[in-house]
Every structure is written in structure tokens, then in C-alpha cells.
Amino acid sequence: MLNYSQATGLMNTVGAAGDVNLKRIKQGNDVWRIDGAGQTFFLKTFTKEWYGGDAAGTAFNVRHERAAFEILRKYGLTAPEVVLADTTCTNLVGRPFIITRELSGKPLVDLLMLADDDDFELLLYSVGAYLRQMHAITFAHPGYLDTVDGPSAPPDPNGWQHRCWSAAQRQKNALAYLESIRSSLSPELSQRLENHFSTMAEKLASDYQPPHFTHGDCHAHQFFLKPDGGAWIVTGVVDMEVASAGDTGEDWLHLLIELSSQFAPDSHWWKSLFNGYGAPPNFEGLRLRMLAVEPPEFGLDSVNEKLIENLLDAKDWEALFSALYEVA
């Protein structure tokens, strides 16, 4: 728990001395909002349960998130300003942390909820354009973005790998997921999924080469925008814990799942997003990835056979997003 004494000391360090207001706004990777000297900052520590009690080990997460923001800035994109990052446990917080300055603007989804038709389209177009620039950044090797130059070597083939690092890993994850849910599916549905997953690595291999900047956990509400002369500009995107050099198709998953749960398919909201990006993602490739998404990523507690069937049967974007909207 962060207390007022610790927060005051940290604000003194970043040049915002004086009284502070402190509020924890997220748990499980705790995020604290700190207001001081007319400025707002966010302190993040990495406390998810799978990190266990190894606070020192989360130094990697701090380096990782800091590097992701630095890379975006290096390539001319707007990103949160890191005002303080500490990878040790010998600090006021007692564990590694990162502090960023508040982004101007508001989250994309909040803005979309109140937007008229013109602004609705402009907001999504701007996010698509930002995503295009982000995905244009490439690296020599896949893996977590732990330095401004990206991974210095390929990931350990015998170690844990994220599904966005290699097509083979995505296929491995998909087949393991299928085995875990097979008893909940009809034999016919299981076979249809197996037919798709068995050739996944081959079908998606080219999307991994070269490795591109990939947010890795790309949700719509993580994009912040502000008005600018009749347009909207992205001021940054937050939560880079999983940022990687890898498959940009990963970013479309959570982004499109979240937007499709909020906005009816008859609005064709995705058209402006894809226009901003310059082209839509490959439909079949995205559908294949989405078939391997596990229930919690859809906001579900258990396997939904109807959703899987509808995704398998979808032949266009409207059908795909209708399937997602129906289970939201």
C-alpha cells in the first residue's frame, strides 16, 4: 500500500512538492493517482498474483514498460511521459515502480459514447492512424521490448513465450486450449476448430516477419485523445506491460472485442478505424486468431458454443462483430 508520506516524497523527487492527494485506481498491478502542485501523475507497481512475492523480479516489468514508451517517442508518436522509474526495492515504495505524467484528453470509449456521428468517425479514424504508425515500427527479433532497440536476441525456444512472438506458439496455445474445452463441445464443433488450428502456424507465419511493435494487450479504453482544430489527436496509449516485437494481429483482438461489445454492428463503426489504419486487417487471419481467444478475454466465464459457431460461420466483418455483440 502506498501512503501519503511515500507519495509526498516521490512528488518532491519529481519536482511537485507540497500537499498531495492520493487514490488507488486499480488493483492487480496497482495503479495510484497522485495529485500534487497542480499536476497529476500515475504510479504503477506490478502486483498481479503470478508475480508472487518476488517484488525484485518485477524490475523487468518497469524496464519493459519504460522501453515501450521510449520507442514510441523515438519514432515520433505521442506517449506517456515517464517522470520516474526505479528498478530496485531500495526506494520509498519498497519495490520497482514507474511514474508517468497524466495524458491530456480522455479515453476513446468515453469519448465515443458522447460523440455525434462526425466525431465518432474522426475518433476511430485517429486511433486507426496511430495504430498504423505504431505497427510500422519493426525489430530484428521477437520478444518483450526491454530496450529502446528492441530484443537483442530471439526468445529462448525452451522458455515461456507469448503467442504474439511466434506463429508456432500461437498454434500450440490454440491446440492446448481446444483440448481443455473439448469435453464442453460437440464432436463436430471440436473437429471444425481442430481443422483450423492444425494449420494456424503455416497460415499466420508471414504476419510475424519482421516482428512489429505490438502493444500486446490493446484495449480501446487505453487510447487517450483530445480535440485539435476540428480533428482528434491521440495523446498516447497506456498499459504497455505486454508490449512486444511480434504479431500486430494480437492488437486487433482486444481492441475489436471491446469496441464490438460497446457499439452495435449496424453502425459499421469499424470502417472508420480501418480507414485510419489504411486497410483492414486480414479477415481470415483475424477470425482464426479470435477462434483461439479464451472466454475471459471475451468477458465470459465459460465456453460459449454459439459464439464459436458464429465466429466459424462469419464471412464478413458485420457477421463477426455481430457474433461478439450478441454475447456482450
Would you kindly provide a written description of the structure presented here, covering whatever features stand out?
The protein contains 12 helices and 11 strands. It has 328 residues and is of the alpha+beta class. A hairpin with a 2-residue loop joins strand 9 and strand 10. The mean pLDDT is 96.
Concise summary:
This protein is 41% helix and 16% strand. With 328 residues, the chain is an alpha+beta fold. The strands form 3 sheets. The protein has a 5-stranded antiparallel beta sheet, sandwiched between helices.
* β-strand amount: 15-25%
How far is it from the N-terminal to the C-terminal residue, by CA? 34 Å
Radius of gyration: 21 Å
Structural class based on helices, strands and sheet pairing: alpha+beta
- Strands side by side in the biggest sheet: 1-2-3-5-4
What is the β-strand count? 11
Query: What does the average pLDDT come to?
Result: 96
What portion of residues is helical?
Answer: 40-55%
**Oligomeric category:** single chain
Low-confidence stretches: none
Q: What global shape is seen?
A: globular
Helix/strand layout:
Layout: H1 4-13, E1 20-26, E2 31-36, E3 39-44, H2 59-74, E4 82-86, E5 97-101, E6 106-107, H3 108-114, H4 117-135, E7 143-144, H5 167-181, H6 187-197, H7 200-204, E8 212-214, E9 223-228, E10 231-237, E11 244-246, H8 249-262, H9 270-277, H10 283-291, H11 305-313, H12 317-327
Antiparallel strand pairs: 1-2, 2-3, 3-5, 4-5, 6-9, 7-11, 8-11, 9-10
Helix pairs in contact: 3-4, 4-9, 5-6, 8-10, 8-12, 11-12
